[in-house]
Specification:
Layout lengths: L3 H4 L35 E6 L2 E13 L2 E10 L2 E11 L2 E5 L11 E5 L7 E8 L2 E18 L2 E15 L6 E10 L3 E9 L5 E7 L2
Antiparallel strand pairs: 1-2, 1-12, 2-3, 3-4, 4-5, 5-6, 7-8, 8-9, 9-10, 10-11, 11-12
């Protein structure tokens, strides 16, 4: 199932500077919600590999002294999980809700105000295995069409997800597309998981 807090970050688990590289920093002040609007009551409906899923911002929660936006996922009208997102200093973070079979460590999923080619990475341990995510901004102000419409304010981000094994790394290549005004539009994958996710409709408050 597709959850923003997870899909947008951890593709092969359920789904991660200077122009060389950098590590994620911790959230602090100055909010910019471009590319990932989080106004309360907003909703996005996606086709996730043939399954319709609706994502809704629904309140806030304080976690470790910081405020996070609650992201509820609905499948067939039933709420399935709650995840959390937070944007500060131009960086967006996602965090899984408790009780899920995915890491709860915050992931740095989106960086604003950086040029094409900007890179960052993060390694997250899952069930004792390090999962590495390498991100690169592929394009800015590009145009794509999804069922919800055509958007020309799009940032495309390449993600390489690597899991080490005794016989070599298992890798999944992903591309995420974000509209500056609407948010997450599309996911393309290739590798051990091949699932396309597209935005069908949205209601930004």
């Amino acid at each position: 199932m597709m959850r923003w807090g997870i899909l947008v970050v951890v593709s092969a688990l359920t789904l991660a500077g200077c122009a060389g590289d950098s590590s994620p920093s911790s959230p602090s002040a100055t909010i910019d919600h471009s590319y990932l609007p989080l106004a309360q009551g907003s909703s996005w409906t996606y086709d996730f590999g043939g399954v319709e899923q609706r994502i809704v911002t629904n309140g806030t929660a304080t976690i470790d002294g910081s405020e996070w936006v609650k992201i509820d996922t609905y499948v067939n009208g039933e709420k399935t999980v709650t995840d959390f997102m937070r944007t500060e200093n131009g960086i967006s973070y996602a965090k899984s809700g408790p009780g899920q079979n995915v890491p709860e460590e915050p992931r740095q999923i989106l960086v604003r105000n950086k040029p094409v080619g900007y890179k960052w990475s993060q390694t997250i341990s899952f069930q004792g295995t390090p999962n590495k995510y390498d991100y690169t901004i592929r394009a800015l102000d590009t145009t794509i069409t999804v069922p919800a419409g055509t958007f020309s304010d799009v940032m495309a981000i390449d993600v390489l997800h690597s899991i080490p094994t005794p016989v070599g790394d298992i890798t999944t290549d992903l591309v995420y597309f974000y509209s500056k005004s609407v948010g997450f539009l599309k996911q393309q994958t290739s590798g051990i998981i091949n699932v396309e996710v597209v935005l069908k409709s949205y209601d930004i408050k």
